[in-house]
Every structure is written in C-alpha cells, then in structure tokens.
User: Which sequence fits this backbone?
C-alpha cells in the first residue's frame, strides 16, 4: 500500500488559486463554444446578430462566472447542497402550478428577463446533493438497502415532478445523472442490474399500455417512438425531422460542403437547426473532420474531468466532478445519438453549441463547481 | 465532521475504480457515436449526398421560342409577340385581398373576374405564381411595374405568345395554337415535358398542329436551387433551348388575302396551285375566323357565334369538305373513255335531252338536248347525255381508276387537319360500303360527278393541274425550313396520251373562250393569260314533287341550305399552264354564274402577281371589277428578302 502513503498537500490559497484552475478544461469549453458560434453564424445565413452574438455574450459572462466560482471553497457547495435541492423541488412544483406552457408541456417559469427552466437547475442540484450525501455517508453503509433507498427517493422526487410536466427526456436525464453518482459512489452493481431489468420491464409495460385506458405516455410520445423505429413511414410528418437531419449529416461526407454551403440548413430543410439539430448543420458543412473533432473535444472534456476526479481525494468533490461530467456526457451523447438516428427524438440540446442562454449559464456554473473541486482538491 | 485519512484513502480507491469503469463506458459510447458518424459521413456519404441534392436541386424547363411561319415572300403570317402579363405569388403577397384590390385600380377587372382570381390564388400552393391577366396593355403593364413596391408578390413579366398578323386569312390552313389540355396530353404516348409547363402553347389544328415537331423547338433547362418551401433561391446553371424552325410556306399572303375577300361572306372555298411545282399559292375557306381569339382563350359567346353560324366558319372546306364535283368531274369521265378507247376525239353521241337506261330516264341539264355532240363540245356545253353514253361504254371501274390517277379519292399528304380522301366509287367500294351490287344508274350518276362521287376543292384543283400538265402534280405547303428549300420534285408523267389530254384541254378552253361555252362571261381577254376551265353545279337534293306543285321550279327559290353548290375549276395560261384554281360556293347556285367569276378573278390575281390590270377583263365588266377592287381592303405585302429568317 505504498502508493497511499503520500503526504496530503495543502490546497493553494488566495490568488494562487488562479494558477491552480483547470485551464485545459476551460480552454476545451471555450473551443466547443467557439464551434457553436461558428455554426450559429452559419445557420443564421451569415448574420452574426441573430444567434451568434448573444450566444458569445452569454458565454463570456458564463466563462467569467465559472472561473470566479473556482475560487469558492469546496465546503460551500457541500453546505448549500440541501438548500439548492429543496429550492429546485419547490420551483418544479411552481412550474406545475403556474408554469408557462410551451410545445405541449409546462416547463418554463417566467421570471421577467429570464425564462427559467427549473428542470435544468435540478440536474445540477441533484448531482450536488447526491455527492454531498455520499461524501457524508459511511463507506460501509453505501450498499445497504436503507441507505440506497434514500438517494433513490431523492432522485425520484424531481423525476416524478418533471415527468408531470410532461418531459420524458429530462426525467430520464435526471434518473441517469443520479445513477451515475450512485454508481461512482460504489453502490453494489446488483442494484444497477435490478434497475436495468426493471427498466426493461417498464418499457415493455409502457408499450403495452398503448391504446388502452391506462395509457402511460402521451400520443405524441408514442408517435416519436414509432418514427424513431421507422422514420420513413411518415416522411412529411413526424419522420421528416429525422430523415432531413440524417440527410444533412450524411451528405457532409469526409470534409463537408464548406462553411455556409450546407444546402440542407441554408434552404431550410432542417428543423430546429439552431437548437436541438445544430449538430447536423455542423456535420453537413464541416463533414466527418469537423463533427469528429467536436466529438473529440467533448471526449477530452470528459477525460480532463475524470482525471481531475480520480486525482481528487475529497470524496464529495470527486463525486461532484464525476456527476457533472456525467450529466454533460449524457447531454451531448444523447443529442448526437438522436440526430444520428440511434435514439428517438428527445428535446436535448447539444451542450455549449445549441443556442440557449440559460442552459449554457447553468452548465458553465456547474463547471465552476468542477473548477472549485479541482482547485481545492487535497493532493 | 472531518474524515480520517484512512476513510479518504478507501473512498479514493472506490471512486477511482468506479471512475475508471465509468470512463470505459463513456469511451465506449463515444466510440459508438464516432463509428456511426463515420458510417454515415464516410461510407454512405454518396447516398446521402444524392438525397440532399434531390431535395434542393430542381430542373426547370425553359420554353423554346416557337418557330415563325412566313409566306412565300417572307411575310410573317404566324409570329410571336410580347405578351405582357403579371403573376401573383401568395407566399410573397401577404394580404392577398388587399393586393388584388390595389391591382384593380390599375387593371380593370370585373367583380367576377376578381373573385375568380382570388379563388385561383387560394387553390394553388403558396409559392406558385398565378397569372393575373394575359395580354395586358403596355400602359397596364408599366403601371404595375412602377407600382411594384405597393404590390408585394406581384411580378410583371413578359413572355412570347403566338400571334397571327393576317388574322382570318390563314385561319384554316395554319390553324392555331392553344394551351395544352389534359385531353391533348392523354392522346400522346410520351409527351414532351415542356408541354406540362403552364400556359405553354402548342399547335391545336392545321399546320400548327401537323408541323408541331418542327415548330416547337427544343426546351432549355435551368438547374435551380429551391428551398424547403419550394421557392427558387438561385440559378445553378442554364442551358438555352433551341428556337423552332422558321417555316416558309408556299402560300402567297397577297393572293390569299385576295381570295378570302373575293369569296366574301359566302360559304365557299378556293384553292390555287402552281401546276409546275405543286405549290399551294392560296387555300381559302370562308367565312374565316380570327385564330388570335383561340390563342388568347376564346370567350364562350364568341365560340358559340362561330359554332352556330350556318356557314360553319370553323370548318376547313378546302381539304375537310367533300362535295359532289358535278360537271367538273367530266374531264375524268372523258379521259377514262378516251384512254379506254371506247371513244375517240371524233366520236359523237346524240343528245335529245335524256337517256333511258334500264327503264329509267336520265336527263341532260338541257331539256331540249344538244343534238350531235363530240368530246370537245361535250365539255363546252357540258352535255350530260354524252357522259351517260361514255360511262356506259367505259365502265365505272375505269372511271374510278382515272379519278384516282387525277387525284380524286386519294389522300394528298398536306400538313393540314383532317385532309379528306373523297370518294372515287367503283364496284368493290359499293359492295364494301353498302353491301350492294353496282348498277348502271350509279355509273351514269358518277359520270357527271353526282351520286357517290365526292371530292374536296383541293382535289379538284389537283385534278385540274394534272389535266393541264399531264403530270402527277402533288400539292405541297412548305417551301423551306429554316431557309433550306424543300426539294422541288420532278412530277412523274401520268402516262395519259397527249392527244387525249389535248381533247380535254380544248374542251375546257371552249367552255370559256367559245361562243357556246358555259362560262363565256368569265373569260380572260388578255391572250397571254388565256384561261381554260369547267363549270359545275352539283345538286344537294332534288326539287321535290311537292315543291314543284307549290311552284318552286328554280334553284334560287329554295331555302339557302337546299340550293345547289356552284363549282368551277380552271387553269391558265392555256399554252403554258402555271396556275390551277378550284372554287366551290356552297349552295351558290350555278357554277358558271357564281363560281366561275370568282375563280377567274383569283386566277388573274395570281397570274398578275397583284391586282390585275382592268384590260384583262372583258369590256363590259371592267367598271364593276374596278368598283369591287376599290371596296376591297387589299394588302400590298412588302416582301422581305424571299425566305428571310426574321426572328421575333
């Protein structure tokens, strides 16, 4: 056990924290966001003011915020975790009661200048609370049923509230995001096996419920499943988005059609091309080289986060980093899998690239916590 | 609650192990995404590229410019004019009602028309331009263009449209163009895609229809990029089409115009053939109609007026109409008899006004009879009995064969609609047609161009040309295509003996230029243009006993549509034939009184190459002729370099 007998170094203090920030991570995030600016400029038909400039401004603010949060001591996050969770749950309840209806679901809270989507905040708050929980919990109790039940309930409360909106995609994200933290915390694999088995059972039951009196999903959700399984059966309707997205993506070829030369996006064949489907425009115009590079950037972000987590001997900070990186991973992998036709269409944006102010701000603040964990890590 | 280093170490170990597992799982997912990306973008890129191009790249046809039609002197008789029109696109118009209301201030439009327009706009897709009005005046067009900013979605444009500058003159021979109907398309096996273009004009009838492949030209192709809404964003490439060939017809616009005016309001037809090369110089069917009405879309009132007119202006009487040729057929019977050897130039028959055959009395038109009649006199006096006798001796089959040899009962290959074959009846024909045996009475009726015999004015002109030349003159309408002259054929000899032909020609000469001739009044006194011809009066029906009882004995006492047809065929100059003419005036009465003067005047115009000098007419008629010509509004066509290729 010689490798464990090392001296626990003191974390840097004061201004020296600045040097200890995870700079490679910051640069990778900026690189990904820059890909987004470029693509937003292109989908706006060469107009910077439509989407690219607001996105850049918000990113600049978010970046400063992230670096600033890096200076926050790690115990602060642990301290606010319960409060953050409770506030988010209350906000979710508020959305259900007074929220703004959009796209057939209540998701927004109109707070004057900002339209807040509490479910976005909840993803981070849940990870934060679970990390704090496992940071506090005695290691020996981690896999005991009662101590497993507590985090499961903590996950299911917001999941149920989001499902109520209804927003299947986000509730699954919450479920998986929480699951990643529990997994990393060392909860016995048997539980995960059981959950996966139960999940298969639930999916089967949901599919069986179709057309009955106890139908568990909305018709539009069933239709999304249908069109995912066979987009061509409704090429002008629900399958249109998937078909056009795949045409755009595939037609990019090795090196793409060139910046601002993508016919699928420029001629409006693509749906939601500045939000959920922005990856298709990127892939069409920059080809495999461009799309693959973005995937590589994402992989590197995950890699740096994991490295930071694995070298962090603070259990809470380590789990927080893994949880946030895991949520980030879920975002981009689900979005890409969706536009590539590997998953059904769920409303998940491509992180840091899709147009959207609040989502990006929340994400960057989450990475601020990752920075904080990195800077203050016992080493 | 600070943790002991031991705890932290255990914790780090567990987190590390699970962290690595997570990393492996995430790497696997990212690997899957990369593999999928590669599969779509590298392996299947070509398939997706095709689909993408199929989305955004469309081919649009550029309608070709229709070929012009010139008369033989290069005068445009079917051209193309700028058609100023405007279209409206719903997608761009915003408030369509408001735009149309503003438009009505510039372009007069009735309430019904406006309602129709709005309904049309609503029916089409938002991105399809809908025509607001064809054939706008320049003022309307320019006021729309000037006010364009106030009229969103309204696009003034100018396209080419067919126009017939000579209006009715060539209505029947050239026909007209019109929009392609679904019915037209259903008749075609593999329709040219250009026909599907909205407003594309295509030959409906006449030469416009028959020569469509030459006149249409080839469509150009534009490759354009469209957006998801189907709207054109830009042109990627453009391949210009090819204009249709310019046709030079054999027709002479001046002569045609003269013929049409000379026939006047009669229901009549006239054909002028150049016997040396078969050129149809004029081919007129009256009354005429203005084909431009059909190009622009004829109103139902105008169309009704044309279809209900008892002179049938829409029918082409020159080639579609077939008539009993009456006495103009006598050259056929005469030549059949002479060639068969059953008569010769010295044979005579005795006419006492009627011939009794098989218990039936066949009358001569002259009740008193003609006495002894030889072949030349038989034509001169148009003695029916002579032909009854000749037919009895010759037999119908030889007469029918002679008719076909001279161009009756055979189809002439002309680019005109529904060219009739006519009937040169023989035994086999009657057996086939009526399942009845031929009887001698049929032969006697046929010998004087009555009974079953039917010929079109064109065929009678051809017959006359063949008698005049002894050659197998074939009529033609096209003189040159795109400046390349159509080969002038050397007509084959008909194989008739010159001596027999001369008998017929001398007979025709005597009809006009002898004291006892039936058409002496219509002679040409200018000796170098001496005319030979033959009158004909064909019965539409007999005067009934009941009518006779009511005192109706003369043809002109009958209602118009029961009167006899008046016919005349002629050629000139007698010594060196140049032009052959046939004229029929439906229900006109007698051939000599009605048809002969018309035919003579048209022939004279052709010979003179313009309004003929008065000295060519017999003394007593000059004043009347001068008066008639003064009242005609004749054109003096300005010949633009023979067969030039003026392009619109």
Assistant:
């Amino acid at each position: 056990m010689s490798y464990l007998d090392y001296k626990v170094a003191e974390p840097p203090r004061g201004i020296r924290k600045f040097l200890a920030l995870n700079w490679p991570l910051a640069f990778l995030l900026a690189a990904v966001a820059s890909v987004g600016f470029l693509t937003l400029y292109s989908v706006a038909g060469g107009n910077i003011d439509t989407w690219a400039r607001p996105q850049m401004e918000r990113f600049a603010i978010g970046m400063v915020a992230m670096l600033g949060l890096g200076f926050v001591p790690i115990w602060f996050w642990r301290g606010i975790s319960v409060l953050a969770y409770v506030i988010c749950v209350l906000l979710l309840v508020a959305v259900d009661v007074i929220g703004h209806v959009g796209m057939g679901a209540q998701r927004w809270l109109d707070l004057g200048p900002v339209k807040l989507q509490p479910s976005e905040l909840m993803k981070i708050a849940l990870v934060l609370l679970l990390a704090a929980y496992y940071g506090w919990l005695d290691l020996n109790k981690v896999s005991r049923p009662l101590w497993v039940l507590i985090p499961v309930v903590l996950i299911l409360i917001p999941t149920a509230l989001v499902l109520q909106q209804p927003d299947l995609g986000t509730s699954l994200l919450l479920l998986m995001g929480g699951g990643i933290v529990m997994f990393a915390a060392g909860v016995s694999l048997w539980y995960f096996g059981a959950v996966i088995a139960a999940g298969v059972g639930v999916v089967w039951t949901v599919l069986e419920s179709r057309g009955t009196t106890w139908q568990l999903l909305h018709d539009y959700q069933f239709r999304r499943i249908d069109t995912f399984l066979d987009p061509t059966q409704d090429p002008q309707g629900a399958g249109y988005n998937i078909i056009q997205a795949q045409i755009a993506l595939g037609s990019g070829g090795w090196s793409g059609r060139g910046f601002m030369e993508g016919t699928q996006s420029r001629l409006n064949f693509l749906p939601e091309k500045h939000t959920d489907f922005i990856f298709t425009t990127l892939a069409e115009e920059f080809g495999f080289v461009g799309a693959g590079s973005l995937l590589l950037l994402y992989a590197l972000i995950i890699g740096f986060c994991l490295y930071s987590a694995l070298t962090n001997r603070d259990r809470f900070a380590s789990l927080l980093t893994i949880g946030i990186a895991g949520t980030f991973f879920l975002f981009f992998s689900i979005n890409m899998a969706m536009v590539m036709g590997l998953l059904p269409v769920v409303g998940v944006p491509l992180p840091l690239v899709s147009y959207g102010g609040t989502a990006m701000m929340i994400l960057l603040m989450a990475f601020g916590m990752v920075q904080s964990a990195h800077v203050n890590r016992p080493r | 609650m600070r943790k002991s280093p031991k705890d932290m170490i255990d914790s780090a170990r567990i987190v590390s192990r699970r962290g690595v597992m997570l990393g492996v799982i995430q790497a696997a997912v990212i690997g899957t995404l990369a593999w999928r990306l590669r599969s779509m973008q590298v392996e299947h890129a070509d398939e997706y590229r095709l689909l993408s191009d199929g989305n955004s790249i469309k081919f649009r046809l550029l309608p070709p410019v229709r070929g012009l039609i010139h008369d033989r002197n290069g005068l445009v008789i079917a051209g193309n004019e700028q058609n100023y029109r405007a279209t409206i696109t719903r997608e761009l118009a915003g408030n369509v009602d408001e735009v149309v209301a503003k438009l009505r201030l510039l372009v007069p439009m009735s309430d019904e028309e406006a309602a129709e327009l709005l309904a049309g706009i609503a029916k089409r897709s938002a991105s399809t331009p809908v025509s607001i009005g064809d054939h706008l005046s320049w003022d309307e067009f320019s006021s729309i263009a000037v006010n364009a900013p106030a009229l969103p979605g309204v696009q003034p444009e100018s396209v080419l449209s067919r126009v017939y500058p000579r209006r009715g003159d060539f209505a029947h021979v050239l026909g007209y163009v019109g929009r392609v109907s679904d019915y037209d398309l259903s008749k075609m096996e593999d329709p040219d895609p250009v026909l599907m273009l909205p407003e594309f004009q295509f030959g409906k009838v006449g030469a416009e229809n028959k020569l469509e492949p030459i006149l249409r030209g080839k469509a150009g192709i534009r490759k354009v990029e469209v957006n998801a809404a189907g709207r054109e964003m830009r042109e990627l490439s453009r391949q210009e089409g090819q204009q249709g060939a310019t046709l030079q017809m054999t027709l002479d616009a001046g002569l045609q115009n003269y013929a049409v005016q000379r026939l006047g309001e009669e229901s009549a037809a006239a054909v002028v053939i150049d016997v040396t090369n078969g050129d149809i110089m004029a081919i007129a069917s009256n009354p005429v109609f203005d084909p431009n009405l059909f190009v622009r879309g004829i109103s139902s009132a105008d169309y009704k007026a044309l279809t209900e007119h008892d002179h049938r202006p829409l029918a082409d009487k020159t080639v579609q109409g077939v008539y009993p040729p009456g006495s103009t057929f006598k050259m056929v019977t005469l030549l059949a008899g002479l060639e068969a050897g059953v008569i010769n130039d010295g044979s005579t028959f005795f006419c006492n006004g009627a011939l009794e055959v098989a218990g039936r009395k066949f009358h001569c038109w002259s009740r008193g009879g003609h006495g002894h009649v030889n072949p030349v006199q038989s034509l001169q006096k148009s003695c029916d009995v002579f032909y009854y006798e000749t037919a009895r001796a010759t037999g119908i089959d030889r007469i029918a064969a002679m008719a076909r040899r001279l161009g009756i009962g055979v189809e002439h290959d002309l680019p005109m609609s529904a060219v009739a074959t006519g009937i040169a009846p023989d035994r086999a024909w009657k057996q086939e047609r009526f399942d009845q045996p031929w009887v001698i009475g049929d032969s006697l009726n046929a010998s004087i161009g009555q009974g079953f015999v039917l010929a079109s004015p064109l065929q009678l002109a051809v017959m006359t040309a063949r008698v005049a030349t002894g050659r197998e003159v074939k009529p033609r309408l096209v003189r040159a295509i795109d400046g390349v002259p159509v080969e002038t054929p050397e007509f084959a000899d008909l194989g008739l003996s010159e001596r027999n032909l001369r008998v017929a020609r001398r007979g025709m000469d005597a009809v006009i230029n002898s004291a006892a001739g039936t058409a002496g009044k219509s002679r040409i006194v200018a000796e170098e243009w001496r005319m030979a011809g033959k009158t004909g009066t064909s019965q539409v029906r007999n005067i009934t006993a009941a009518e006779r009882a009511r005192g109706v004995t003369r043809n002109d006492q009958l209602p118009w549509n029961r009167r006899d047809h008046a016919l005349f065929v002629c050629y000139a100059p007698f010594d060196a034939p140049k032009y052959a003419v046939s004229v029929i005036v439906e229900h006109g009465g007698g051939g000599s009184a009605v048809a002969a003067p018309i035919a003579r005047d048209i022939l004279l115009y052709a010979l003179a190459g313009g309004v003929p000098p008065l000295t060519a007419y017999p003394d007593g008629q000059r004043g009347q002729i001068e008066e008639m010509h003064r009242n005609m509004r004749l054109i003096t066509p300005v010949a633009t370099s023979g067969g030039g290729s003026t392009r619109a």
Remarks:
- Residues 60-91+100-106+114-249 of chain B form a domain with the Penicillin-binding protein 2a (Domain 2) fold (CATH 3.90.1310.10).
- Residues 639-648 of chain B have pLDDT under 50 and may be disordered.
